[in-house]
Amino acid sequence: MAKELLKGNIAIAEAALRAGVDAYFGYPITPQTELLEHMSRRMPELGRVFLQAESEIAAINMVYGAACTGAWAMTSSSGPGISLMQEGLSYIALSDVPAVVVDIMRGGPGLGNIQPSQADYNQLTRGGGHGDYRCIVLAPATVQEAIDLTVLAFDLADKYRTVAILAGDGLIGQMMEPAQLPPMRERSRTRPPWALTGARGRPPNSIAAFGLEAETLEAMNWRLQAKLQRIRQTEVRCETWLVDDAEILVVAFGSVGRIAKTAVREARAHGIRVGLIRPITLWPFPYKPIEQAAAHARAVLVVEMNTGQMVDDVRMAVCGQAPVYFHGRPGGSVPVPEEILERIVELSKED
Amino acid sequence: MAKELLKGNIAIAEAALRAGVDAYFGYPITPQTELLEHMSRRMPELGRVFLQAESEIAAINMVYGAACTGAWAMTSSSGPGISLMQEGLSYIALSDVPAVVVDIMRGGPGLGNIQPSQADYNQLTRGGGHGDYRCIVLAPATVQEAIDLTVLAFDLADKYRTVAILAGDGLIGQMMEPAQLPPMRERSRTRPPWALTGARGRPPNSIAAFGLEAETLEAMNWRLQAKLQRIRQTEVRCETWLVDDAEILVVAFGSVGRIAKTAVREARAHGIRVGLIRPITLWPFPYKPIEQAAAHARAVLVVEMNTGQMVDDVRMAVCGQAPVYFHGRPGGSVPVPEEILERIVELSKED
Amino acid sequence: MDEQIAVVNVQEQLVYARPRALTEETTNYCPGCTHGLINKLIAEVIDELGIQENTISVSPVGCSVFFYRYLVLDGVVAPHGRAPAVAIGIKRMLPDRVVITYQGDGDMAAIGMSEVVWAAMRGENITAFFVNNANYGMTGGQMAPTTLAGQVTTTTPEGRDVETMGMPTRMAELIAGLPGSAYVARCSTYDARTIRDARNAIRLALRAQMAEAGFTMVEFLSACPTNWGLSPQGALQWIKDTMVAYYPLGEIKVSEAVQRLKTKR
Amino acid sequence: MDEQIAVVNVQEQLVYARPRALTEETTNYCPGCTHGLINKLIAEVIDELGIQENTISVSPVGCSVFFYRYLVLDGVVAPHGRAPAVAIGIKRMLPDRVVITYQGDGDMAAIGMSEVVWAAMRGENITAFFVNNANYGMTGGQMAPTTLAGQVTTTTPEGRDVETMGMPTRMAELIAGLPGSAYVARCSTYDARTIRDARNAIRLALRAQMAEAGFTMVEFLSACPTNWGLSPQGALQWIKDTMVAYYPLGEIKVSEAVQRLKTKR
Amino acid sequence: MARGRIVINLEACKGCQLCTTVCPSNLIRMANSFNSRGYRPAELVDPQQRCTGCALCAIMCPDAAIEVFREVKVKSQEGSAAEEVVLVVTGPA
Amino acid sequence: MARGRIVINLEACKGCQLCTTVCPSNLIRMANSFNSRGYRPAELVDPQQRCTGCALCAIMCPDAAIEVFREVKVKSQEGSAAEEVVLVVTGPA
Amino acid sequence: MQVSVIIAGFGGQGVLFAGLMLAYAAMDRDLYVTWYPSYGPEMRGGTASATVVIGDEEIGSPVVLHPDAAIALNIPSFRKYEPLVKPGGVLVYNSSLIFEIPERTDIQYVAVPANAIAAEISDTRVANAVTVGALAAVTGMLPVEALIETVDRHIPAPRRATVLPNQEALERGAQLAAELLKQSSPSALPHYER
Amino acid sequence: MQVSVIIAGFGGQGVLFAGLMLAYAAMDRDLYVTWYPSYGPEMRGGTASATVVIGDEEIGSPVVLHPDAAIALNIPSFRKYEPLVKPGGVLVYNSSLIFEIPERTDIQYVAVPANAIAAEISDTRVANAVTVGALAAVTGMLPVEALIETVDRHIPAPRRATVLPNQEALERGAQLAAELLKQSSPSALPHYER
Ligand SMILES: Cc1ncc(C[n+]2csc(CCOP(=O)(O)OP(=O)(O)O)c2C)c(N)n1
Ligand SMILES: Cc1ncc(C[n+]2csc(CCOP(=O)(O)OP(=O)(O)O)c2C)c(N)n1
Ligand code: SF4
Ligand code: SF4
Ligand code: SF4
Ligand code: SF4
Predict the structure, then answer these.
(1) Count of structural domains, chain F
(2) Closest ligand 3 atom to C35 CA
(3) In-domain check, residue B180
């Protein structure tokens, strides 16, 4: 298929369609609204379910219900809406049903603004609701990657029966880039055996995110943890670039990853030995690759569009092997390559 | 004043009254409901405001409104309810108004159960909503400390104009212990200058958790960060016990802290050199004291009533100086001293 | 006349048995709690309509959190108050299944107000069973939206003051007032007659859903002897004497389509 | 007859000025957006009642997020849909202040349904100004609860299908049906007469609040020329020709207490 | 008058006494013993076989603990009527 | 007929044209120039002084950009009436 | 020095109040004490328990796996706690409802026909106090007089009518235990005689 | 090799579409390109901008602080971007609405009476295309024919009526720039002639 000039939000929506999403439930919020709007047109066209929910809380619970029938269901939102979904996500996570959530992050806290940001790192990667769970979190840096990771999100959600979140920042949602969409998948899925479809000729299925007795719930928790451990072991993804000889290691995700790349390229042109690690899975976090790369680094620079939410993870990965610095722009400001380059040059001069 | 046999929930409610709370808004949820119930009787008695809200979302937003008038307002809940408050908390945090939230934690994720747990560590300490903010989080280990920290929560919330959370686990909420309540404070507070009271003879005040332009919101974010940094520098609290010569360092908070204490005492009786650090402020986290204590430890054991949510913080504090082990009981199970002792003995045998 | 003489035997016949759609498990409900009775009635109607293998339940958070298990149905437990949204997610995927929610008054009328209003507003083809016991049962008897004026609960120690807490919520009337609701009835289970009426209402609501008439709801005035501090019998009496006066029983809304069903049978 | 002859001068008098309670700042509203007009009317009434220093505003999330700044009042911006809850928090602390909320239709009728229903149910003494422009303005014209049947929006490209999305929400009627509401009116601002009626409704709502009559609400049918794809004049015409037919103007509920106020003046 | 009989599932009974209040002939009372869940179950005391199988008790029982049998006159052509109804029995008999 | 005059705040005007549609004498039109926010403001074109100060335009203006003055006959006892109303003027004149 | 007691039974049997009697008595004697309730998944009814830990130093864990003593008011509680009581500990049980055969030899069993005795006094609602009285007497952990005093001091106004029956029940339980003690040796649990 | 352009103006001036013309033309020539929109706090109206980065290698940052070229369609945009354009870069501006006096000497100014020209063609709505045509011609970054082709290829069915006016506007802008170029030297920006 040929490349098209695609806006991130539309590309994600279209990728979800092609991956095989059965149902979309959502509520408007900038900067993701085009995704909702695209779905409102395309889902009915394809004979699938689209419903504009009355709120984000309703949306995530509709997703929960649809997912319980074995369908591939999704929603999309941005920071404030994701906050409202936390209880629902916590239920879904313990229920072992698959769901995909797209978060096109904007400035926070509070109402914040509609400019690009990465202010949701903590609430996405720490299992922002109550209880011991995590969601898979995928962070694309280009429109093409947004497409690819959307498809992956469905496959991972399905494989592990869990929540997979596509964490785009406002840049990814709003920008256009030539990209190639995958072909429309054949949808011949059969309902999984655990799905709620009416107990026809079999004992009833039930889905319940609780265990009133401590022993029951403890066992459910350890089972969930075992699954999360499997995901940690198999699903870590990141891009490493020029790290082999890097004395300075830049760590940045999402569109900051690509912006940092420009800075790294220019720094290399200045003769500075600098490399880049771009986590693609924010959870599970690429601790190992960063630990290894940090082993021979003199300094690690984390760059984010927030006040340093990923720094904890990087510090844990680096584990004291090198000092960890931070450069960040919260509240909707986007760092430009120049300022990152400046920090790199600064660090290269320290000894 | 003499000691009384007090249930944690009641003690916290009564301490809030004596600290000077002006308004309480809440919604029932086990295991904190006695707190709400106590307030329903006592607040009207004292001529203060009590309102049973229709939901946790309404409750936190009523707290927001009341706090905007310069009042001391509070709510209380447990895991699922706290999840629903995340958007509101994020707004309050950026608004620079004081608020106190009590979370009596229960088993999670999802509906979980009503047994004691520490399943909300992440959502409380990571600024569970969207954006770059943190709340002060205080974790009592005894009913007496619950009283003292409740008073402190109000004072800190007021001092820093921020959210202070009292994070009790279900044990603290449900158990009774003799404890002493503070005397009723004189309440002669004047409305602070920023409060919304009607713009009488002054320009209007406004409170808004947003900045539509990136520059504005970025500046607001850095201002908030500066405040958080001040809190980090001045408000760290923890209990250290027998750590000076400890080869094994146990880190546990809340009621697990006291349970671990019994185990440590017994281990000492067995001649094992073990000490305990009990974080009292979960945020800001006592990184320094743990780092120092870990400097001469052979092993660090984190014990929690969850699957290890505090471990990240401890690992960052220990920073590779010693291996960090974890013993946890999620889902409402409570670790008993025997099992902790067992782990300590195990670790003491490894070399 | 026919010469044949019929041999007439006296046989013992089972005239009332536990419905098949009701599990054999003993419930967690308190003695005399009419949640049990309502569960049983729903099971009876499901048996009668033969839709057990075609029905999916959505349970609330509250004393009836195990509804999904007491009824022999595929089912899920929704977060507190969100049963309608979860049910909508299910129904939109499987429009030919019967989807039912079961919610307490705290669950539906307090935290879940938005979800149920929206289900009714959109005329979602689901059936809500709404159990109004005038308090929050599971959490120990706090004021619910439906708590009567002056009623003492653990959070209204002086009785519900309608000046500060508002008048009790008449959910059936509220839902009936919305455009998408097709059938709304208020029932109780305090005697054989009200039980029969309740069973009829349940049946009609489910038939209406099967006929895609829109949102249907049956409200039940239900006893919570434990938190009311009354004996089971006293609790039923209180419903009859006190609750019914504020919450009148009967059909509150019958859309034309449902009216046709009714006459058709 | 009196012998004195009055000296009659012709003087120029300012007969219409920008209200004092309205900031001098230019708003962010689009050209022809009647949010501006409604803001102005509210400011005029606040001037008239002399309550500027006694009034606290709660703004929504939506095009009118800056309402707190356009009106020269103490004010706060509530999270999306939660203005009533925030206003209740304020009012319960300061019962002698006038507390007003200003909400769009997405804000109040969709995500904020529960909060506003509950404010009305409890008869909270606050006044809600509800701006019904039949779509989500700020986010670019998606379907709102109030979007008319068949109306094309960015999320109803084929027009709102009431089969799947339900009938448009008549908030004024819904709120009027709840026990705690004292005064509910629906107005518009498409001509001098409707503007006058709107001003009267605003005045009565605020006076009712000051008399502690209960929850009051004024709904405005408001133009969103930008997202409707109409000229400002065309947009007003559409309100008059199309919206009013589904959303009748007038007073929907006047409690006895408010009726007394009305006659008293 | 029809003759009937009820079977109370002692383990399912929670001792709420509602059945006792509706029996028109006052034939149900509470046992003196406890079941394994700590409740005092109801029991039929009907020495004179006055139970008509009216089923009011069963209808009223919130715990579906009562089954009701009634004697009916059937034309025994195939003798199958009784068998048929037996199929309805799914609870613990 | 009363005589009137309107003052349009050119920077506040957003060029929505609503005032032009309500003026009974059709005295308002849109300027050819732009204001600093990029809008073409309204202007009063009233060479014959036909404006009656009816204020319909101002009432209609969503941006409170119009002030209306009207000539009135006053008994000049203290000559204060005009002064009083001046106090009402708070917007940019 | 610490002693831990778990009291367990059906929801309605006054398990929590039984624990409170011990807790208040301990507090009145300036001892450290914790009281911790636990409910089963039943809404009401079902099985409940209260754990009371009393000591003369700060109490670590308010929950215990192996209590020094247990009171079982119904069969499920007997079955659950019989194996858990610490060797050398005491198991007081309500022999009006529990007909199990004791299996362990390393703990002391105290069979108290609590319902029967309570019925003699007033009604079965004070069966819990009978067992508490027996526990106190058999272990000596707290003087029975202390409990009797405590009941008087801490039962609040609306329930004053229950003071005397509870006191009598404590007394009767203690008497019974004293009888039993004559036949066997006292337990080795800590005594707080102050 | 990359070139970045920021196009800025009032909301209604077709800023985003102007950027799209460049982006599509680049894509059609198999170049890498990113297009990124940005709005001010106004609901509608207010100031908007589009940033287009074109290159023959993977593009890092889709946002730039110092663009190689800028198109200013209104005064606020002129004021904002004049100081930001890279030395050696180009500032095309709509001289129908902008009467500012250029202050820098290290960039090339291209004054285009875009509204006037657009009005000559059809209406002011294609003023944006006039400036894009001028930018293309003056910088040579993309051949004007490529833009003309692109407009034809990518304007979708419901708006086909705008194809011709846009094409004419591009042409007219380019002609004008060619005139201007005769008087000065061409810019030093990258050209993508393929
Ligand atoms: C978000 C959330 N808030 C609160 C609770 C606590 N909670 C559990 S059940 C319940 C109310 C039950 O009352 P009702 O809905 O009336 O049902 P009933 O128990 O009376 O049948 C509440 C508040 C919860 N589980 N989740
Ligand atoms: C929790 C949350 N969800 C969604 C949004 C995005 N949002 C901002 S304004 C708005 C709707 C505005 O529509 P309406 O209330 O009708 O007001 P209008 O702009 O039309 O005046 C939405 C959905 C948000 N800010 N927060
Ligand atoms: S608490 Fe009330 S509603 Fe809940 S099971 Fe018991 S009687 Fe029923
Ligand atoms: S988008 Fe609509 S509601 Fe919002 S300011 Fe513009 S015209 Fe008004
Ligand atoms: S009604 Fe049922 S549960 Fe109640 S006593 Fe009778 S048999 Fe037992
Ligand atoms: S109504 Fe107001 S904003 Fe609109 S054109 Fe006239 S003066 Fe300008």
Answers:
(1) 1
(2) 8
(3) yes
Which residues in B lie closer than 8 A to residue H41 (C-beta atoms)? 212-213
Continuous segment of H or E residues that includes residue A298: none
Taking the centre of ligand 3 as the mean of its atom positions, its distance from the CA of residue C208, in whole angstroms, is 30
Residue F20, in any domain of the structure: yes
Any domain includes A90: yes
Residue nearest atom 6 of ligand 5, based on CA coordinates:
E19
Average pLDDT rounded to a whole number, residues H97-116: 93
**C-beta of residue A11 within 8 angstroms of C-beta of residue A146:** yes
- CATH number of domain containing F55: 3.30.70.20
Residue D1: the pLDDT is: 44
Q: What is the CATH number of the domain that holds A22?
A: 3.40.50.970
Query: What pLDDT shows up at residue G118?
Result: 93
Hey, how many other C-beta atoms are within 10 angstroms of the C-beta on B137?
A: 25
Two tokens at B268?
Answer: 């000492």
In terms of Cα–Cα distance, which of F57, F3, F61, F1 is closest to F27?
Answer: F57
D81 CB near ligand 2 (under 6 Å): no
Tens-place pLDDT, residues B299-335:
999 999 999 999 999 999 999 999 999 999 999 999 9
Amino acid found at H130: V
Q: Please tell me whether the peptide bond between G83 and the residue prior to it is cis, using omega within 30 degrees of 0.
A: no
ipTM field: 0.95
* Burial (0-12, 13-18, 19+ Cβ within 10 Å), B183: exposed
Contact F22, F60 (CB under 8 A): yes
Place of tokens 């608020």: B99
Q: F42-44 and F28-30 as β-strands: parallel, antiparallel, unpaired?
A: antiparallel
Q: What is the secondary structure of B148-186 as a DSSP string?
A: HHHHHHHHHHHHHTSEEEEEEEHHHHH-EEEE-PPPPPP
Whether E33 has a pLDDT exceeding 50, the answer reads yes
> By residue range, what is the domain housing residue H113?
2-188
A41 phi, psi to nearest 5 deg: -90, -45
CATH number of the domain to which G13 belongs: 3.40.920.10
Structural domain harbouring A106: 4-184+207-234
Whether residue A332 contacts residue A107, with contact meaning beta carbons closer than 8 Å, is answered with yes
Report the alpha-carbon distance of residue G22 to residue G151 in Å, rounded.
10
| Tokens 């009402």 sit on residue | F88
pLDDT band at F83 (very low <50, low <70, confident <90, very high): very low
pLDDT at position G43:
59
Each residue of E6-26: pLDDT tens digit?
Answer: 999 999 999 999 999 999 999
Identity of residue A333: S
Determine the residue of A25, A27, A29, A114 to mutate for testing ligand 2's pocket, defined as the one with the most ligand atoms within 8 A of the Cβ atom: A29
Percent of chain D with pLDDT over 90: 94
Q: What is the pLDDT of residue G193?
A: 46
pLDDT of residue E82: 41
Closest CA to D216 of D30, D91, D73, D107: D91
- CA distance to partner chain C, nearest, from residue G165 (Å): 22
Measured in angstroms, how far is the CA atom of residue C63 from the centroid of ligand 3?
6
Q: Using the structure block, give the residue that is written with the tokens 């509530």.
A: D78
Give Cβ neighbours of residue G156 (< 8 Å, ≥ 6 apart). Answer: none
* D237: amino acid identity, one letter: Q
Q: What is the DSSP string of F57-72?
A: HHHH-TT--EEEEEEE
Find the mean pLDDT for residues G143-164.
92
Name the CATH superfamily, with its identifier, for domain C35-264: Thiamin diphosphate (ThDP)-binding fold, Pyr/PP domains (3.40.50.970)
Instruction: Determine the structural domain holding residue E83 and report its residue range.
Output: 3-88
Residue B107 and residue B155 in one domain: yes
Does the pLDDT value for residue A283 go beyond 60?
Answer: yes
CA nearest neighbour of B301 among B258, B266, B351, B264? B264
List CB contacts (< 8 A) between D27 and chain F: 63
Which residue type is seen at B177? Answer: E
Identify which of C60, C54, C53 has the alpha carbon closest to the alpha carbon of residue C38.
Answer: C60
